[in-house]
Amino acid sequence: MIDLASASAVVTGAASGIGEGIAQRLLERGASVVLGDLDAERLAATAARLEQDHAGRVAHVAGDAADAEHIAALIAAAGDVDLYVANAGVFRGFGLEAAESEWALGWDVNVMGQVRAAQALVPGWVERGSGCFVSTASAAGLLTQLGSPTYSVTKHAAVGFAEWLAATYGDQGVQVCCLCPMGVRTDMMREGETSEDATGRLAMKSVVTAGATLTPLDVADVLLEAVEAGAFFALPHPEVGTMYARKAADTDHWISGMQRFRSSLEQ
């Protein structure tokens, strides 16, 4: 298991929300953290805030988390990376009419950004016998995401990739943890709740009515507990595990229930 107190970590999507929360908790544990995000101005402000309490252990590199060159820059800034948190994600594309560009963006950020990071890190981790890869995949990757096929499909793919990594490299020193929260009070949630697209609003309403809305720090606490325990799934909403089991046990019944849930939200 990774010793978080001495770990060198990278967290993408770290300018706000879950990524910022994870970075803060890692720093509080004693880790050194490189923050990445597409929003350069906000990233710099977040890094400056964290640096106040954790001087010398915070760095930041702005860029696209799906871009191989940016991933390489994050890794270079961190040095020997012990923990990579592939947290950056996008929530775009609602309904069957979602545009090709929205599908492409979701696939690139939510899936290929994680694939490219693993390609850059896993061979070295196998060679030295240690390393931890965290995939922020969402409860949508275990259940579904009403309203957004792009988010649902790409988050399912993220879970599938994390499972494959664990099955392939987990006995070679590479730890994999898949983070699957439901509602978390982030910019993504606020944007969904105020979307001009009715299907987009339904998508976010389905999240906030399915369970408690947590803070990013709540989610970070559950993630780090899972990492320290060597668990594959980190479920900030424990009920997601129950829903996932019921879905597997009787998928037809689960789908009927989701249809009723969607209908109630539409009304």
From TrEMBL:
InterPro entries: NAD(P)-bd_dom_sf (IPR036291), Sc_DH/Rdtase_CS (IPR020904), SDR_fam (IPR002347). SUPFAM superfamilies: NAD(P)-binding Rossmann-fold domains. The keyword Oxidoreductase applies. Gene3D superfamilies: NAD(P)-binding Rossmann-like Domain. Keywords: Oxidoreductase. It comes from the Bacteria. Pfam families: adh_short. The keyword Isomerase does not apply. Belongs to the short-chain dehydrogenases/reductases (SDR) family. This is SDR family oxidoreductase. It comes from Aeromicrobium wangtongii.
